[in-house]
Design brief:
It is a single chain. The protein has four helices and 16 strands. Strands 2, 3, 4, 11, 12 and 13 form a six-stranded antiparallel beta sheet that branches. Strands 1-14-15-16 form a four-stranded antiparallel beta sheet, with helices on one face. A two-stranded antiparallel sheet has the order 5-10. A hairpin with a 2-residue loop joins strand 14 and strand 15. The chain starts with 38 loop residues before the first helix and ends in a 13-residue tail after the last strand. The N terminus is likely disordered.
Length: 377
């Protein structure tokens, strides 16, 4: 049977100074110590790399830890310029068939207020292994049963892992689990009674509805018998068993299904500015912290306290979701500073507002002054 297989921490010159992580076994050293680290050092998983079985928690590699909290810096991004705000609104209106573009082009920007917020994202890459019984028609030949050698345990089978944080699935036949048994569908006979004619080999003639007559004449299709030969079994009353292909025997074995899944949990700080934060799912932000390891620990002492609680909740959630047949292979947590600017502008003596958010400069507005309703008949 042929196998079916699958398919660092960043810093910028103007990034804020990172904060410390809890516990003696920190999942990453402070950011200022990472500049000299190579990519290979950041990705190294020790001797456990391709064995498919993560090390016990007490054998996880220890990272360096700084007990001192770096001095707090300015965590906000400056508000966008008038020009950027205008261009973002013009682009937004251009995609609205019922909005007139004049206010966007000729508005008078009065105030730009930065309302930037933070998003915490946790990725947990897990591997799940399950075995299922599989059968196929037995055509004779060698049977790799448990008499040949003991069958390996699911986690003892070595496979090549897919790229990190990518969903993938693989199916592998487990060696030494094969056995030959009678087909349960036909009890080993290789044939089953035809279900269309119930084994009689004949069916009611559809031309005369079984009467044997058509318009006061003998039915030509059944010669007046009211019955015709069953086309499904060709009049024999039996059909080859589909499951065993008429062999009467099935070759059973265990199939190992390996599922790699990347689970994502997010927490966005809602500062209650009236902006619907679910819109932030559509955009990216400025990554200010990244931490990747076998397991990561909750954030502590972040300038926005709710990020600490959000990270703790997300990590606990993923721990609970990890089933008994699953192993956490890798975790990564990042914090993004998401640009969000409220723009107040004047148009024809009235003041309106809209928000520009994300690196993509997307727009959200509820009170655009030049929109109309139209319908398509």
């Amino acid at each position: 049977m042929q196998d079916r297989d699958h398919c660092h921490i960043c810093s910028t010159p103007d990034a804020p100074v990172p904060y410390s992580l809890p516990h003696e076994q920190s999942s990453a050293p402070p950011l200022e110590l990472m500049d000299g680290a190579t990519e290979d050092e950041g990705e190294d998983s020790g001797d456990y790399g391709n064995k498919g079985l993560p090390p016990p928690a007490d054998q996880l590699p220890e990272g360096e830890h700084s007990d001192s909290i770096p001095p707090q810096t300015e965590w906000s991004i400056l508000a966008i310029s008038d020009h950027v705000a205008r261009e973002a609104l013009v682009q937004y209106i251009a995609n609205k068939c019922c909005y007139r573009i004049a206010p966007a082009k000729y508005m008078v920007v009065q105030n730009l207020t930065p309302l930037n917020t933070f998003r915490y994202r946790l990725q947990t890459f897990t591997e799940t292994r399950e075995t299922f019984p599989i059968s196929e028609p037995y055509n004779g030949g060698f049977v790799d049963s448990s008499d040949v050698a003991p069958a390996p345990a699911p986690w003892a089978i070595v496979v090549d892992e897919p790229p990190l944080f990518m969903d993938c699935k693989m199916h592998i036949p487990v060696p030494h689990t094969y056995s030959v048994q009678d087909c349960p569908n036909c009890q080993g006979h290789g044939k089953n009674q035809c279900h269309l004619c119930s084994g009689s080999g004949q069916r009611i003639c559809t031309a005369c509805n079984g009467t044997g007559w058509q318009d006061s004449s003998i039915c030509l299709f059944c010669s007046g018998s009211g019955k015709r030969r069953c086309s499904a079994c060709h009049g024999g009353g039996w059909q080859n068993c589909i499951r065993c292909s008429g062999k009467g025997l099935l070759l059973y074995h265990s199939e190992l299904t390996i599922t790699w899944k990347n689970s994502v949990a997010e927490y966005v700080v809602d500062k209650n500015f009236g902006f619907p934060i679910y819109h932030l799912q559509e955009v990216t932000g400025k990554e200010i912290f990244s931490d990747e390891n076998q397991v990561v620990y909750p954030i502590v002492n972040f300038p926005e306290p709710t990020i600490d609680r959000g990270s703790e909740s997300c990590i606990a959630q993923h721990q609970m979701q990890s089933a008994s047949n699953s192993r956490i292979l890798r975790q990564k947590q990042i914090i993004e500073l998401i640009p969000l600017t409220k723009v107040e502008y004047a148009w024809r003596g009235k003041v309106y507002s809209f928000c520009v958010f994300g690196n993509e400069n997307k727009v959200y507005t509820e009170d655009y002054p030049a929109k109309c309703c139209c319908s398509v008949m």
